[in-house]
Amino acid sequence: MKGMGLGVILLLLLHSIFYVAFCFKDGLLPNGDFELGPQHSDMKGTQVINKKSIPNWELSGFVEYIPSGHKQGDMILVVPKGAFAVRLGNEASIKQKINVKNGSYYSITFSAARTCAQDEKLNVSVAPHHAVMPIQTVYSSSGWDLYSWAFKAQSENAEIVIHNPGVEEDPACGPLIDGVAMRALFPPRPTNKNILKNGGFEEGPWVLPNTSSGVLIPPNSIDDHSPLPGWMVESLKAVKYIDSDHFSVPQGHRAVELVAGKESAIAQVVRTIPGKIYVLSFAVGDASNACAGSMIVEAFAGQDTIKVPYESKGKGGFKRSSLRFVAVSDRTRVMFYSTFYAMRNDDFSSLCGPVIDDVKLLSARRP
């Protein structure tokens, strides 16, 4: 029996070592920045003609390997980081297989930029999950935005596919892709200190180092599993996930910026006891990203609401507010959005808005 017990322990230890050694570590996918490219003999101009010539990736359709500064007509194609990116033409895709842990949640982050197509979209998938993500709205002046998408692993292998479903007259008109990364997500639970899950937004998608654009969390309607665990994006536009390395954050290391007015809202449904008093508290501020002016965050809890004004100088800072309410059902929806649109005053083309953080919901005693 002792020998059998030792054998089981060794087997479990070896299994753990296998996961540590072979499961994906948070960060860029292998050659996720496409700096390792095809041989010249595998290319025809910028088009890659050998589907396995970009290391770690398999290609399908009209895929181009684009150097930074490449000219296309009147356009100069800029790469956000490094020297190379790929462009997905008509019905083109790139894919890569990664070892994951079955049943675990993961978030994919990638940079994307429009080029010359009118209605550019991307289909991101890990079977059986997929989402068609519109990239029509440009949130930053550089033209490049970081997007995120999440999935639940159904086996110990995940095949990540990024596909351009569009068909244009010019097959070279399609989105540019760079900086593909992944992070394991650990969905948080409510505690006796906060009924809300992930109220500090510390759990979320991978933020690429030395990238000051933040990461867009897509609307819930196109995402089965939120890259921001616990929260839904209940709006037509995305919200932006920001970190303390590049922005001013009221609490901890992460926060959410509401970048598209009333079209950019986050929400969470929590269990409550009808007739019981609760207090919703939160911080409102700015990200120190030149987003200056008068802002208003509207917070909702069940049938109650509060408007919190904030005068931003665009240099960081925050204020705290709270909403006291009586629950009217066993499920209460908590939601936040910005009343107004805003633009950064240093380029007048990047969408921005108020930051929310440190969101807490606790029951309160009757006075």
Automatic annotation (TrEMBL):
<protein>
    <submittedName>
        <fullName>Protein BIIDXI</fullName>
    </submittedName>
</protein>
<dbReference type="InterPro" id="IPR006946">
    <property type="entry name" value="DGR2-like_dom"/>
</dbReference>
<feature type="domain" description="DUF642">
    <location>
        <begin position="27"/>
        <end position="183"/>
    </location>
</feature>
<keyword id="KW-0134">Cell wall</keyword>
<keyword id="KW-0964">Secreted</keyword>
<keyword id="KW-0325">Glycoprotein</keyword>
<dbReference type="Pfam" id="PF04862">
    <property type="entry name" value="DUF642"/>
</dbReference>
<dbReference type="InterPro" id="IPR008979">
    <property type="entry name" value="Galactose-bd-like_sf"/>
</dbReference>
<keyword id="KW-0732">Signal</keyword>
<feature type="signal peptide">
    <location>
        <begin position="1"/>
        <end position="23"/>
    </location>
</feature>
<dbReference type="InterPro" id="IPR052437">
    <property type="entry name" value="Pectin_Meth_Modulator"/>
</dbReference>
<feature type="domain" description="DUF642">
    <location>
        <begin position="195"/>
        <end position="361"/>
    </location>
</feature>
